Amino acid sequence: MSNNFKILVVDDEQNILDVVKAYLEKENFEVISAMDGRTAIDIFNSGNIDLIILDLMLPGLTGEEVCRRIRASSSVPIIMLTAKAEEDEKIEGISIGADDYLTKPFSVRELVARVRALLRRTYKNFAPMADILTFNNKDLEVDIKKMLVKKEGKLASLTTNEFKILTIFIMNPEKVFSREELVERAFGGEYEGFDRTVDTYIKNIRQKIESNPKEPVYIVTLYGIGYKFKPNAEEVKK
């Protein structure tokens, strides 16, 4: 994997910034740091950031709000750092747009390993296919190369992991996937998620691509079995 990636590290503890920066630079990543949320957003808006490591407990603008604002316009992968270890808190992090999370105190070596794994999954894991697929008279449009999704002509900002799962469905129309199969297809054996995490991803995707998420027409549930994608592709563009 090429290491020409630019990583934004956001934490209000200088010692954490220094250690994480040193380890990442040792792996030949370019690292930019910020100690508060507003600075982080300014940096993100001014440069081509490939991945964000984001602490939740920030002064002023919280990490959660930073994540929400970035997710409004970008699918850049985000790893959250949190002192909250409860499962519900982790699910909440995923709900607002995190792709991965680590609980403080954490191993910096593990963080670097997760950074590499997430970059590899994000930028290397998509199979070749048509550039743009449209469904139901352009109600839904998916640009595979640019990782963009539009619903009724408006941008639907999916997270990296949500886009991966949607891509797996699109590549396998009408195929029924269990939760375990979705994890394996989308993330491989490195992912340490759990069943409720997959359900959260599906819920988030439905909120963004379905006209009525409570009555989905694209990603449907087969109770006790899993999920499948029901396409009605009317056009494929190169």
From TrEMBL:
The modification 4-aspartylphosphate is found at D55. Keywords: DNA-binding, Phosphoprotein, Transcription, Transcription regulation, Two-component regulatory system. One of its GO terms (biological process) is regulation of DNA-templated transcription. Signal peptide: none annotated. The keyword Transcription regulation applies. Residues 130-231 bind DNA. SMART domains: REC (SM00448), Trans_reg_C (SM00862). Transmembrane segments: none annotated. Residues 6-119 form the Response regulatory domain. GO terms for molecular function: phosphorelay response regulator activity; transcription cis-regulatory region binding. Residues 130-231 form the OmpR/PhoB-type domain. One of its GO terms (cellular component) is protein-DNA complex. May play the central regulatory role in sporulation. It may be an element of the effector pathway responsible for the activation of sporulation genes in response to nutritional stress. Spo0A may act in concert with spo0H (a sigma factor) to control the expression of some genes that are critical to the sporulation process. This is Stage 0 sporulation protein A homolog. It comes from Clostridium saccharoperbutylacetonicum N1-4(HMT).
